[in-house]
């Protein structure tokens, strides 16, 4: 059984994060989202490489950052209507293999408070190989 996202979570994920100019430019696409877990796809593009055939680390970092922010937003509920935005407070990335094709990032919230989340992110290629891991702290901004 899956749990639907709140309208606030859906707005932040689909209306803000995935509609940002950078997300659109690199082709990020939502694969799945439930409260506390989001998967986002990054298609391989020759426009996103460092050297031929290898995705730029900054593009992969953007995938991780966006997935973590979306996972953070996925747990928002009607009680969070005072949320006005958010930002990544800390991001740690471990590149394990070169990204040479389409990638998916799954971000899972492992800790949530009213003001922040801590998420673990795993990026895999189409064969399922673990390419990159990350940990992110996301902060919420609220009306005063």
General description of the model:
- The chain is an alpha+beta fold and 144 residues long.
- The chain is 24% helix and 44% strand.
- The protein is built from 3 helices and 8 strands; from the N terminus they run H-H-E-E-E-E-H-E-E-E-E.
- The protein has helices spanning 7-17, 21-26, 57-74; strands at 29-34, 37-42, 49-51, 54-55, 83-95, 103-112, 116-125, 130-142.
- The strands form 2 sheets. A 6-stranded antiparallel sheet has the order 1-2-6-7-8-5, covered by helices on one side.
- Helix 1 packs antiparallel against helix 3.
- The longest helix is centred in the middle third of the chain and has 18 residues, at 57-74.
- The radius of gyration is 15 Å and the shape is elongated.
- The model has no long low-confidence stretch (mean pLDDT 96).
Task: Break the fold down into its secondary structure elements and pairings.
Blueprint: H1 7-17, H2 21-26, E1 29-34, E2 37-42, E3 49-51, E4 54-55, H3 57-74, E5 83-95, E6 103-112, E7 116-125, E8 130-142
Helix pairs in contact: 1-3
The gyration radius over C-alpha positions equals 15 Å
Helical content class: 10-25%
Strand order of the largest sheet: 1-2-6-7-8-5
Count helical runs.
3
Could you give a short account of the major beta sheet? 6 strands, antiparallel
Helical/strand content category: alpha+beta
Mean pLDDT: 96
Strands, total number? 8
Between the first and last Cα atoms, what is the distance in angstroms? 37 Å
Order of helices and strands: HHEEEEHEEEE
Which term fits the overall shape? elongated
Uncertain residue ranges: none
Q: Which band does the percent of strand residues land in?
A: 35-45%
